[in-house]
Amino acid sequence: MRLLIISDTHLPRRARDLPAQIWEEVERADAVVHAGDWCDLESLLSLQARAERLIGVYGNNDGPELRERLPEVARAELGGVRFAVVHETGQAKGREKRCAKLFPDVDVLVFGHSHIPWDTRAETGLRLVNPGSPTDRRRQPHHTYMTAEVDGGGTDLRLHRVGTGL
Fold first, then answer.
1. Which end of the chain is more exposed for a tag (fewer CB within 10 A), N or C?
2. Is 55 a domain residue?
3. What is the pTM for the complete model shown?
C-alpha cells in the first residue's frame, strides 16, 4: 500500500494549488494522509475528489467549514499498520514520551504544524513523523512531503523535496 503524507498546505495563502508533483503522488497513492492546516474548503474537496482514500484532520488555521468536516484526531489501519493523525503535538522537547502516552495503541503518529520534517521513535516503538509542508517551507531549506510503502505491518517511509522528482 502506497501512502502520500502531507500537511500545512495553507491554500490559497501560500500557493494557489498543490505543486504538480504532489498531484502526481495523489494519483499513485492508495491513501493520502493530511495532518491539517488546509486553510480552505476547496483544498479538502479537491483532494477528496482525486484521492482513492483520504485521511485528514483540521489544524489551527482551519475555520468552521473544515472543522465541521474533519476530526481533530483521525485513526486508520493501513496495510496492517495503526496510524493516528493530529495537527499539533506541542513543543519538540518531550514529544516522543508525551505522544507515546497519548497514543499507546498506535504504530505511527503523523503530525504537522511546525513545517519541520520529523521522523523519530518513542521508547515504546511509536514512530512520529511530520512531512513538513509542500507549499510553505518557513525557515526550512525545502518544501517537503513524505511517502510510505506499508506492507504486512512494516513501514518504509521517505522524505521528499518538492521539485526534485518523485
1. C
2. yes
3. 0.95
- Taking only the tens place, the pLDDT of each residue in 4-20 is 999 999 998 878 899 99
| All three cell numbers of 99 | 505522544
Total count of residues recorded for the chain? 166
Exposed / middle / buried, residue 20 (Cβ in 10 Å: 0-12, 13-18, 19+): exposed
User: Structural domain of residue 35, as residue ranges?
Assistant: 2-161
Instruction: Indicate which CATH number applies to the domain containing 138.
Output: 3.60.21.10
